[in-house]
Structure formats: structure tokens, C-alpha cells
Specification:
Elements lengths: L3 H13 L2 H22 L4 H34 L2 H6 L5 H30 L4 H28 L3 H26 L5 H16 L10 H5 L15 H36 L4
């Protein structure tokens, strides 16, 4: 099902576009800015640099990865590369799985670079750093496969990138929205909106519960970032209680990557060339 030459072809395209070099330079610039901002802080300079750097570098990494994935896929369609590749002994499912694997490998490399840099710019809790790095890799992999899905469905590279980043923004703010709605007035409007958000939270990744910067400062066990979860969603709370944070990260990554791949395959296998 996985075509090694196709995976190598995608990784070669990433090298040709200087994706990793460009992101590495921007990550170093972001780290330098974080250290500068931390040195300018009156108190808790190291923690400030750690939190500011991890948050900004995570956002930078996902933007670079999503832009590359979306523009690569749309360029492949426009240049007839997709039709050429499918004329080889490669099935459409193998095409999708190979691209998802290549994009996920790039996501892992970017997450590893950011994790190393975050470990250098501050003095994070080591357990929290390792789990944060694993969470970051899963988060980037989900967004890479989401970019693959939207690039297959939408005919515009910019539109698919905006749709993916919109999904990312919604996934990062779902817990906040649910928390606000749970404390809102008890009327029919808030009840309807709250029910809709609970349904949305079940079909979108809960990235707000992954990669929390408090893990870097206090560790996962001492962090209070998961205290709101009973009000976030039933399934997420159940998974964390029974499988732990690492189990939640692994399960959510596998489930949503599988769902996005299935949706991409459903659209791609029905398309006529």
C-alpha cells in the first residue's frame, strides 16, 4: 500500500523547496526573539521565554507545514503530476497513504526541531518536554493530513490552506468556547449553541488539550490545564481518565488521521481524470 519511491519523491520535493532549511532559520529567529523577550522580563524570565517560544514556534511550524502540503498538492494537480503518477503501477489509495506518510515524516522532523530548540532556550521539565514534543508531532501530523484532505477537495491552494488553518484555530479554541458556553446564561440560545459546540468537539481534534505550554514549566502531573475537561467533552474526559495523557495523544492522532484519510480516499477514488 505504501510506495517507497513516491514517499522519497515527496521528501525530495520538500528539499527542493528548501522547506526544512527555511523553517530551521525561522525557528532559530523565533528562539532568539523568545530569549530576548525573556531577558526583558522583570520576573520569571526563563519561564516567560519558554512559554512564549514554545507557543510561537508551534504556530510557525504548523503554518509552514500546511502551506507546503497545500501548495505541493495543488501544484501537482495543475502540472498533471497526479495523472502521471497514477499512470504508473500505483493505486489511488497507495497515492494517498504514501503522501500522508511523507507529510507525517516532515511533521515529525519539524516537531523534533522545535522540541530541541525549546529545550535549549529554557529549562523545561524534562517529562513535560518529551510529552509536549510527542503531542506536537501528533498535532502536526493531523494538520498535514488535514491539508492533504482539503487540497484534494478544494481546487485552490490558498483556499485549502485557509480551510486547514481555520480547522487548526477551531481545534485550539474548542475548549475555551465550551468553557464559556457552560458558564453562560441559562436560556435556549446558549443551550442550542452549547449543544452544537459539543457535537463539533466530537468531530474535530481537541488540540487545546494537547501540547500545553504549562507542561514545560510545571510538568504534566502538576499542570492544572486539564482540570476543565469534564466540561470540555465527555469522550475526551473518558479517554484521558482511562488512558492517560499519552494515551489520549496517541489515540486522537490515530483516529483523526484515519478519518481524514478515509474522507480523502472517498473523494479521490470517485474523481474522474
Amino acid at each position: 500500500m505504501i510506495s517507497k519511491p513516491l514517499v522519497k519523491y515527496v521528501l525530495t520535493a520538500a528539499m527542493r523547496d528548501r522547506l526544512m532549511v527555511t523553517l530551521a532559520l525561522m525557528i532559530l529567529m523565533g528562539a532568539a526573539l523568545s530569549v530576548f523577550m525573556g531577558s526583558a522580563s522583570v520576573t520569571e524570565g526563563a519561564s516567560f521565554a519558554l512559554v512564549f517560544g514554545s507557543g510561537s514556534l508551534r504556530f510557525l511550524g504548523v503554518i509552514g507545514l500546511v502551506l507546503f502540503c497545500c501548495f505541493y498538492i495543488r501544484r501537482a494537480f495543475e502540472n498533471k503530476e497526479v495523472e502521471f503518477l497514477l499512470s504508473r503501477p500505483i493505486s489511488r489509495l497507495s497515492f494517498l497513504v504514501s503522501h500522508a506518510l511523507a507529510f507525517s515524516f516532515l511533521a515529525f522532523l519539524i516537531a523534533a526541531m522545535i522540541t530541541v530548540v525549546v529545550g535549549v532556550i529554557g529549562h523545561p521539565n524534562m517529562e513535560g518536554l518529551l510529552i509536549w514534543g510527542a503531542s506536537l508531532a501528533a498535532e502536526f501530523a493531523m494538520m498535514a493530513v488535514a491539508a492533504l484532505f482539503f487540497s484534494m477537495v478544494l481546487s485552490s491552494a490558498a483556499g485549502s490552506a485557509l480551510a486547514t488553518l481555520g480547522l487548526y484555530a477551531l481545534s485550539r479554541t474548542t475548549g475555551t468556547l465550551l468553557g464559556v458556553l457552560s458558564q453562560g446564561p441559562t436560556n435556549w440560545f446558549y443551550a442550542i449553541i452549547g449543544s452544537m459546540m459539543k457535537l463539533i468537539s466530537m468531530v474535530t481534534p481537541r488540540l487545546d488539550m494537547m501540547g500545553q505550554t504549562t507542561w514545560l514549566v510545571y510538568g504534566v502531573r502538576r499542570s492544572a490545564g486539564l482540570q476543565f475537561m469534564p466540561h470540555a467533552s465527555v469522550y475526551a474526559h473518558w479517554v484521558v481518565v482511562h488512558l492517560g495523557v499519552t494515551g489520549f495523544i496517541a489515540m486522537q492522532g490515530m483516529v483523526f488521521v484515519a478519518l481524514l484519510l478515509a474522507a480523502s480516499a472517498f473523494d479521490f477514488t470517485r474523481r474522474q481524470f
